[in-house]
């Protein structure tokens, strides 16, 4: 009898017939991916193991990029509004007509007053182009996503350390023994953090998560500290208090690398009070204990004092800045017992954490056997380490006191000697930068209409503010004004109210890219929709023209007058540039590209979309903008890819650092290489250059690093960067508010500037809580949102695969909180803030601090948007807390934002909850408020499947 035939099994099937490497766009992580194609379609997306960001690891979002590309919500052609705003009534037009319309709106603006264009972008990841384009147009009114996302983090770090948390620094994953995660959700930089946490766990390091909610990284932490929102700064000050009391600080580090020993003038009421004492050449002074005399603070071989009051040669009195620091934080108001109740953390826990930090930093100190030379020429045989690291994100940033909280964390790091030492927080190139960074915001137009600098930058003093002769704001968002002086990313969340109100003037055109300002990026959603649709007495819209670019039919599309359909990220070129948001790690500088894995013109019949960056290049050429046209008026760049290769920001410096020079023989600096993009494609889509081994730590004062960074174009000079425990920049503003200097704030801002521009980190009650009478009785709970690891902004929750993980959100509360307010699990409840009420479904979860409720962000959708089915759960039961958040403070005098940077204070929300009157068991119950569905088209209600066609094709091939 013949044995049965064994089936033929392909034990190593290929995912496709072609693979291309590029960069993911499903979050801000920017991981390397391999896209497998079969029969001209995407078959599979996997991580690229060669890529420095993710080393092959890929999350659910990245894998689901297939369904992002094939989303039914994709826009197909340019659209011109024919009905009222919000009606969803458009007609398809050609690109030529779209360009003619846009040019007809923008050209007169450019000729009469470029500031009548407000150009604001969301998650575009190409600000090295968009900001430069705004500069060529000549408008000061440009900003990006960071103003309502991360500017507190960036400014807090850049004005303290010359670098920051977020994606611009990292813990020393290989050597740290103790990691504190402050307000870190799992949406940003997720794969590198996951890889790093794996290293820490494998080595037995302790991980402490400080967050009102325990999810994601906090779930695997060794200890979760459920802090009350907005009190992280107080907790940090209590830790500092304990470290100072116990004398467990690194004074040698402070004197070598910070301004702790610099002398601060004590002259109450004087114009120099609080400024650093300087010699005739402007060099800061210290007090040399050996010579018992003043001396240059940056000299070596001294024994500088860090406490005490001293008489300067000119008779003035001065104290070291550390003396001021110790005076403040040794005050009993910062003791663990004093802050415990406000933070919701037992005093004994605070004391224990302080002890553990000190033990890790000092008792487990170690050195790497790496010789290096410091910036003053001193040779060192080893690199001493402090194995304590910290990482922080939006949980501490998105508060009206967030700037000072970020500075408090940096001060805590500095006291432990735990900045860019082995085992601690590490800079990623091109950081650190001088403090503050040298680029100031543009505010004057040259003869050709171009701004004298990019619209965004860093203010060094009152002279850099973008205000008029009366001290009033010149920008439509009020950034860089006396109300929000250090708003380095602009203030996207204030644009619509101010444009509607004509404050400080009327604009003509609002141009936005990937900024869903009518929905999940709107504070005060209903009122925002009103601003977009409101008309003046003349019957015309108060915001006359809105140009909006996006790849998908988001809520904001319905409110545009002209819609420019973007490609998906797999259909275009992008530059992940060192000039923008680099993908470096602490040991190497890196940048990357995206390139068209698929041809947009072949993805669907009649589809005609263009990458917004290329659209911007062509629009600039049609407008004749300097830098975008040749001398004869012809277009300088063919498209964005051509711009990436040939544009130079400075001689030899372009958007990409790899394979520069005529033949690609140079890196970082060199003439444009016409084959540069092809070199990137051949090398996996990225370039990376190793930091020399002797230059990987102490970057702020390491001669090897400073010289390398200057050669690479990251630094204009190789001088050491002095870390700032005390900020003279802040004191300059305080002095102006006290009546000193040529430029002083208008009367209405003086108290505000004097109060919040403290040269040492401080803490104050978030504005929403401070300005509501009888707060704890009326609104006893804090309410915060977090983005889940499996989604990112609004565009993730229209993805067919990611929606299988969650299609709706709940308001999560601790069971004890439910019992306190008479609420049961899955009850429908009313949630009320000073700004309104929403009705949502509650769900018990023990992973939340008892005075806090929370939900996932950006899952809730407006019905009709994103071409979801008409009964999609995202629109029926999903919701946003945004409806409850006001864009202005309860007092109504300022934006609901940090007074230093203008950062949107999303996480200051206070609410009360009560059982709703709606039927508790009704399957038809929906969250409230509900808005009229947007007629933007809906998807087929049948399940959206993918991949069956490949199996059918394979079967046909086998049968054939």
Overall shape: globular
In spatial order, strands of the major sheet run 5-4-25-24-23-6-7
State the major sheet: 7 strands, mixed
N-to-C span: 30 Å
What is the overall pLDDT average?
Answer: 94
Name the poorly predicted regions.
956-960
Rg, Cα atoms, Å: 28 Å
Strand content: 15-25%
Q: How many DSSP-defined strands?
A: 34
As a percent range, the share of helical residues equals 10-25%
Count of helices?
A: 27
Structural class: alpha/beta
Description of the structure:
With 960 residues, this protein is α/β, with parallel strands linked by helices. The protein contains 27 helices and 34 strands. The strands form 10 sheets. A 7-stranded mixed sheet has the order 5-4-25-24-23-6-7, with helices on one face. A 6-stranded mixed sheet has the order 30-32-31-34-29-33. A hairpin with a 5-residue loop joins strand 15 (310-311) and strand 16. Helix 8 packs antiparallel against helix 11 (336-343). The protein is globular, with a radius of gyration of 28 Å. Residues 956-960 have low confidence and may be disordered.
């Amino acid at each position: 009898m013949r044995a049965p035939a064994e089936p033929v099994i392909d034990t190593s099937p290929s995912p496709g017939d072609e693979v291309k490497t590029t960069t993911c766009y499903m979050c801000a992580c920017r991981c390397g991916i391999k896209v497998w194609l079969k029969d001209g379609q995407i078959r599979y997306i996997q991580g690229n193991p060669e890529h420095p960001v993710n080393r092959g690891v890929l999350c659910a979002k990245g894998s689901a990029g297939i369904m992002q590309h094939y989303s039914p919500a994709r826009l197909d052609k340019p659209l011109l509004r024919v009905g009222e705003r919000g009606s969803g009534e458009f007609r398809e037009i050609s690109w030529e007509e779209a360009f003619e319309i846009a040019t007809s709106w923008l050209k007169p603006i450019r000729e009469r007053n470029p500031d009548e264009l407000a150009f604001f972008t969301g998650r575009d990841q190409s600000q090295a182009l968009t900001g430069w384009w705004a500069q060529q147009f000549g408008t000061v009114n440009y900003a990006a996503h960071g103003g309502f996302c991360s500017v507190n983090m960036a400014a807090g770090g850049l004005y303290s350390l010359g670098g920051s948390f977020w994606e611009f620094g990292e813990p020393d994953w290989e050597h740290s023994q103790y990691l504190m995660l402050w307000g870190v959700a799992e949406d940003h930089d997720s794969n590198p953090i996951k890889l790093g946490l794996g290293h820490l766990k494998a080595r037995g390091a302790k991980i402490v998560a400080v967050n009102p909610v325990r999810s994601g990284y906090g779930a695997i932490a060794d200890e979760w500290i459920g802090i009350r929102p907005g009190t992280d700064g107080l907790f940090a000050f209590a830790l500092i208090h304990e470290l100072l009391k116990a004398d467990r600080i690194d004074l040698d580090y402070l004197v070598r690398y910070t301004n702790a020993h610099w002398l601060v003038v004590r002259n109450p009421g004087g114009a120099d009070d609080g400024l650093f004492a300087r010699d005739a050449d402007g060099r800061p002074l210290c007090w040399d204990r050996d010579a018992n005399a003043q001396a240059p603070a940056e000299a070596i071989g001294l024994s500088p004092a860090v406490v005490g009051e001293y008489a300067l040669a000119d008779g003035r009195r001065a104290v070291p800045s550390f003396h001021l620091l110790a005076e403040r934080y040794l005050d009993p108001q910062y003791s663990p017992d004093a802050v415990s109740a406000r933070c919701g953390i037992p005093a004994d826990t605070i004391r224990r954490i302080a002890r553990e930090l000190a033990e890790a930093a000092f008792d487990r100190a170690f050195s790497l056997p790496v010789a290096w030379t410091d910036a003053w020429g001193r040779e060192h045989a080893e690199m001493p380490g402090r194995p304590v690291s910290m990482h922080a994100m939006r949980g501490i940033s998105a508060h009206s006191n967030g700037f000072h909280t970020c500075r408090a964390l940096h001060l805590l790091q500095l006291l432990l000697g735990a900045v860019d030492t082995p085992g601690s927080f590490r800079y990623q190139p091109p950081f650190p930068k001088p403090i503050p960074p040298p680029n100031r915001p543009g505010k004057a137009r040259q003869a050709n209409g171009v701004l004298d600098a990019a619209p965004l930058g860093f203010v060094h003093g009152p002279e850099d503010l973008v205000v008029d002769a009366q001290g009033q704001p010149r920008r439509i968002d009020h950034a860089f004004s006396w109300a929000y002086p250090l708003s380095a990313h602009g203030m996207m969340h204030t644009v619509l109210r101010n444009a509607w109100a004509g404050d400080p003037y009327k604009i003509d055109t609002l141009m936005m890219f990937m900024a869903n300002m009518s929905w999940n990026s709107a504070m005060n959603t209903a009122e925002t929709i009103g601003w977009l649709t409101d008309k003046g007495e003349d019957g015309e819209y108060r915001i006359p023209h809105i140009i909006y670019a996006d790849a998908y039919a988001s809520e904001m599309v319905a409110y545009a007058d002209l819609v420019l359909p973007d490609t998906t990220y797999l259909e275009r070129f992008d530059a992940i540039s060192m000039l923008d948001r680099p993908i470096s790690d602490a040991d190497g500088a890196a940048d990357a590209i995206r390139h068209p894995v698929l041809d947009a013109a072949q993805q669907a019949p009649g589809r005609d979309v263009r990458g917004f960056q290329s659209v911007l290049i062509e629009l600039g050429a049609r407008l004749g903008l300097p830098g975008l046209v040749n001398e004869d008026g012809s277009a300088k760049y063919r498209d964005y890819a051509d711009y990436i290769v040939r544009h130079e920001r400075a001689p030899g410096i372009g958007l990409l650092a790899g394979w520069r020079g005529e033949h690609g023989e140079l890196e970082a600096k060199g003439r444009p290489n016409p084959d540069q993009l092809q070199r990137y494609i051949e090398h996996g889509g990225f370039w990376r250059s190793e930091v020399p081994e002797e230059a990987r730590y102490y970057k702020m004062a390491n001669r090897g690093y400073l010289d390398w960074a200057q050669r690479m174009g990251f630094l204009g000079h190789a001088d050491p960067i002095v870390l700032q425990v005390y900020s003279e920049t802040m004191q300059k503003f305080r002095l102006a508010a006290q009546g000193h200097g040529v430029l002083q704030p208008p009367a209405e801002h003086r108290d505000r500037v004097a109060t919040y521009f403290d040269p040492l980190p401080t803490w104050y009650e978030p504005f929403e809580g401070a300005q509501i009478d009888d707060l704890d009785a009326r609104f006893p709970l804090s309410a915060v949102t977090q983005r889940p690891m499996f989604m990112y902004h609004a565009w993730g929750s229209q993805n067919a695969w990611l929606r299988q993980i969650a299609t709706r959100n709940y308001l999560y509360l601790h069971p004890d909180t439910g019992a306190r307010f008479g609420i049961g699990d899955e009850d429908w409840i009313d949630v009320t803030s000073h700004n309104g009420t929403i009705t949502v479904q509650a769900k018990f979860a023990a992973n939340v601090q008892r005075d806090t409720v929370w939900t996932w962000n950006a899952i809730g959708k407006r019905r009709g948007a994103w071409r979801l089915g008409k009964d999609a759960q995202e629109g029926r039961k999903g919701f946003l807390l945004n409806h409850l958040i006001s864009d202005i403070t309860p007092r109504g005098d300022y934006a609901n934002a940090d007074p230093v940077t203008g950062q949107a204070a999303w996480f200051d929300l206070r609410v009360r909850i009560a059982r709703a009157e709606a039927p508790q068991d009704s399957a038809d119950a929906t969250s409230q408020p509900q808005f009229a569905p947007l007629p933007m088209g809906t998807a087929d209600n049948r399940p959206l499947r993918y991949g069956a066609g490949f199996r059918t094709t394979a079967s046909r091939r086998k049968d054939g």
